[in-house]
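FIELD: query
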Amino acid sequence: MSISFSRSMRSLHGDSFRPSLATLIIASIFIIAWFAWLVFAQITLYATSQDWELQRDGSLIVHLSEDAVTRLRPGQRVTLEVQGTSNQPSQQLPAIVADTPSRTQNRLASDTVRVTLLAPMPKGATGGQVKIPMETVSPLTLITRAAEQVTVR
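FIELD: result
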């Protein structure tokens, strides 16, 4: 049985679009906030290595990829996360890049960097990880780089 046209028009005039409008506004706010995070958030990318040697003078020789080494500069901050013994927790030690293979007066291999510790190495340290911040990028930049890698392959 069909509804008469006048009844359906009264029904449309009496209907409130407020719930739909509120949902649209809330969804728009979430989309704008997500896009702002995508563009303006900062993510730090690190070069990491567990392959390092403690030298007699207290410095470290750290082995990294050649690409990472070419982007490093003396004076750049480094963090050494040292694993402790069973009765000591792991520690984070501050350090700086002291020397890179691009300088002519050193004898470093092309995949190594000399790092100077700014705090004493704890006794009984068995190993750890060197973390060097390489760059700070937005999530949108990471997505763009990943898309470029997919299309190149």
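FIELD: remark
Residues 18-40 form the longest helix (23 residues).
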